[in-house]
Amino acid sequence: KRRDTSILEVVQTAVQVCQPRADARGIEFRINCPEEIQARVDATLLEQALVNLIDNAVKYSGNGNSVWIDIDRSDSQIQIHIRDEGPGIPQRHLPRLFERFYRADKARSRKLGGTGLGLSIVKHIVQVHGGHVTVESALGKGSTFTLYLPVEP
Question: Which DSSP symbol is given to 62?
Answer without folding.
Answer: P
